[in-house]
Amino acid sequence: MKTTEFARSIENLPKKEKTAILEIIDLKISNEMREVISEIRGLKETMNAKYNVLLGMISFLVVIVTVVSLFLGLKG
């Protein structure tokens, strides 16, 4: 339901009922936002872990290339 349709639907209700409905909507939105934030934090942790693995692999490759270069330099 669009906001304008919702506003028309509740405009004739008594103020107490409007307030109660809006508070329920606020609670639902707040709860959903907490879930979204929690999901984003989980994704962030996953991305950080993958980034750290990638950095570790790159560091390992740099060490291998350095060792091979030194070995070939000493040999040649």
Strand runs, count: 0
Would you tell me the structural class of the helices and strands?
Answer: mainly alpha
SSE order, as H and E? HH
| Radius of gyration (Å) | 29 Å
Shape: rod-shaped
Cα separation of the termini? 76 Å
Q: β content, as a range? A: under 5%
Can you tell me the residue ranges where pLDDT is under 50 for at least 5 consecutive residues? none
Quaternary organisation of the protein chains: single chain
Offer a concise description of the structure.
This protein is mainly α and 76 residues long.
Could you name the key traits of this structure?
single chain; 0% strand; mainly alpha; 2 helices; 76 residues
Structure notes:
There is one protein chain. Helix content is 91%, strand content 0%. With 76 residues, the chain is mainly alpha-helical. The protein has one domain (3-75). The longest helix has 61 residues, at 15-75.
Task: Compile the SSE list and pairings.
Elements (H helix, E strand, L loop, with lengths): L2 H8 L4 H61 L1
